[in-house]
Design goal:
The structure is a single chain. By secondary structure, the chain is mainly beta. 3% of the residues lie in helices and 53% in strands. Strand 2 and strand 3 form a beta hairpin.
C-alpha cells in the first residue's frame, strides 16, 4: 500500500473536532513491512472509538494479523490492542496513551499536528496521520533503530457513515451499534 503524501490533502483547519470525527466504528486495513528482511504482513479488523466518560475516547482494535515471525514461521491469528485518547488544549488534537496511562504520542490531522515521534528504547517511531475525507483516514508508522526497521500503513474507513454515533444505540461493551454485524 502506498499512501499519498500528507500534504496532498486539505488541512481540516481550526475548530476541527477530532473526538467527534473519530467516534464510531471503522474498518482497519494495515500493511506491515520489515525492511530488514523484506517480510510483509497484514492486519484487517475493526477499530471502535467509544466515549471514556472523561471527555476522551477508548480505542479498541480487533482483527486478524498475518505475519512471518523472526524465525521464518508464518502466523495468522487474532490480534488486538487498546489505547486511550485524552483531550488536549484544542479539539483538533488528542493525546494518546497506553491502557495503563503512560503517554504515547499526540494525534491530529491539522497542520503540523498530523506528525509526532515516540521513542521506545532503542527505536524511534514516527507517525503521520492524514484525513482523506469525512469517512476515511490513514496513518503511517515509520519505525527505525537498532532493533527494528519497519513500515506500518493503516487505512481506516468508517463503518457507520451517515449515522451520528452519539444518537446510535450501544451494545453491552458501550460501542455504537450501527451495523447488525457489529452488535453483540
Amino acid at each position: 500500500m502506498n499512501l499519498p503524501a500528507p500534504d496532498a490533502f486539505p488541512d481540516p483547519g481550526p475548530g476541527f473536532d477530532l473526538r467527534a470525527y473519530l467516534r464510531g466504528s471503522w474498518s482497519v486495513d494495515r500493511t506491515l513491512l520489515d525492511r530488514r528482511t523484506g517480510t510483509r504482513g497484514t492486519f484487517t479488523g475493526v477499530v471502535r472509538f467509544t466515549d471514556d466518560g472523561d471527555g476522551g475516547l477508548r480505542w479498541r482494535e480487533e482483527g486478524t494479523v498475518s505475519w512471518t515471525s523472526f524465525d521464518g514461521v508464518p502466523f495468522t491469528g487474532p490480534a488486538s490492542r487498546e489505547y486511550l485518547l485524552r483531550p488536549a488544549e484544542t479539539g483538533e488534537v488528542m493525546d494518546m496513551a497506553f491502557p495503563d496511562g503512560r503517554p504515547f504520542h499526540r494525534m491530529g490531522f491539522a497542520g503540523h499536528s498530523n506528525q509526532d515521534v515516540h521513542w521506545c528504547d532503542p527505536d524511534t517511531y514516527r507517525v503521520t496521520y492524514t484525513m482523506l475525507g469525512p469517512h476515511e483516514a490513514v496513518y503511517r508508522w515509520d519505525v527505525t533503530g537498532p532493533a527494528k526497521d519497519q513500515l506500518l500503513e493503516s487505512v481506516l474507513r468508517r463503518l457507520d457513515a451517515g449515522v451520528d454515533p452519539a444518537a446510535a444505540p450501544v451494545n453491552a461493551a458501550g460501542a455504537a451499534v450501527t451495523d447488525a454485524r457489529l452488535a453483540g
